[in-house]
Here is the input.
Amino acid sequence: METETQATWLPLDSVAQERLRGLRKKIPEHEISYLPRATCKDCGSVFPKQACPKHKLLQECANCHSRRCTSAHVDIPSVDHVYVEQRLFEADPGYRIRFIGADEHGFPVITFTGEGANRYANLWGTIEICGVERSEVGTVEAGKANLHKELMSDLIKRLGLRLGVGAELRDRSAIRFPREAESKGGRSSASASVAAPAQPVTAAEPAIDAKVIAQWVSRIAEVKTVAELRAIQEELRDPKMETIRAVAEVKDAFVSRANVFKQEQAQRVVDAASDPAASDEEDSTDGDAVDLPSPRRRARRAA
Ligand SMILES: [Zn+2]
Ligand SMILES: [Zn+2]
Here is the structure.
């Protein structure tokens, strides 16, 4: 990526390279916010007065912190533009953003695309930082009252992304499914997770037969639906299963199967966003009631 405009610049020195690498550092959890996106046409929005019969209202979603929201939504991770700017500044305090195009007063040119509810405003810009240059477009819904400010925020986030800031959040496995926030009285039963057992395996524990482990791993790997995975999760919740569910291979099998479902659902969400008529099909495997383990950051797949 760095080579794309490098020909017109002096070769990057090792300091600049190091700083650019720093931009790709993983975003810490406290800088990530989750934006809810409704996935059920019958619920209508993230905040229906009454959820449809297939879904329920959550008091508070543990990811996006929406109150009184439908369980039929996904939480899309995002890093606030303020944190992106902090990273850009740390890498190169002299970084510069130029807008592409200006009107007769020198204001940046904002273009509009789409129609009706799908009308969007776009702002193009170029960033120069640490000796490299990237161009991107910020895009927000055209009806926003604070359009210019939102466009700027989105452009900064997009430019940051072009430099690798928060790239891992674009991975579909980073999308989360809603679950009830923990109440003050402790974890609700729904938030107990197979993937996060209380007790790690220690050397002192009796060894489990490798054959038994292999059976569990293949059983989990062959699961076809979220419902089946949920059933296995229930089985593993039994206190007698504690040693099994603490086995790393079993955990890994569960997480990787859960991630496959997540990616499938995320794909459907993406598809549904581009084709709203297709959105009702995801109820067949809705993952909202399943307490899937939190997504594991994976090596980014070549998209
Ligand atoms: Zn619904
Ligand atoms: Zn949420």
